[in-house]
Amino acid sequence: MADTVWELGSSDGQLLLKTGVSGPAAKMGHRLTIAVDWHATVEW
Question: Which residues have C-beta within 8 Å of that of residue 36, sequence separation ≥ 6?
Answer without folding.
Answer: 15, 16, 17
